[in-house]
Amino acid sequence: MDVIFWGAPLWMVLAVLGLVALSAVTRAFFFLTQEPIRLPEWALQGLKYAPLAALTAIIAPEIVLPLSGSATGWLDPKWVAAPVAAVWAWWRKDMLSTIVVGMAVYLALKLGVGW
Predict the structure, then answer these.
(1) Which residues lie closer than 8 Å to 10 by C-beta, 6 or more apart?
(2) What H or E segment, with its residue span, contains residue 57?
(3) What's the pLDDT at 71?
(4) CB of 76 closer than 8 Å to CB of 115
(5) Is the model's pTM score more than 0.90?
(6) How far does CA 98 lie from the centroid of its chain?
(7) 10 Å Cβ neighbour count for 98?
(8) Which residues contact 89 (CB under 8 A, 6 or more apart)?
């Protein structure tokens, strides 16, 4: 018989608390040291691309993989909004304005035109 704690089995509560503790320690690691940690130049260079890589990993599957029941081909507004956003990103080299332009084109096609 499993022990129930906070409406869940004890092993599940312990696993969640362990993950919370592990996440807190790894995120606060830089604050727990006595002296500042110096990262090598290659790590600093790589960290500049981390937000772009994370955003690409989230958005690329949404653009490429069709949802069941959704429109395909050029009737799907994401196939128009993604290249427009890519051209904007190449031209302006600003991530926030790229997101705004891509979503503006997507919403204009989805809500305004009715795609």
Answers:
(1) 2, 3, 4
(2) helix 50-64
(3) 57
(4) yes
(5) no
(6) 15
(7) 21
(8) 95, 98
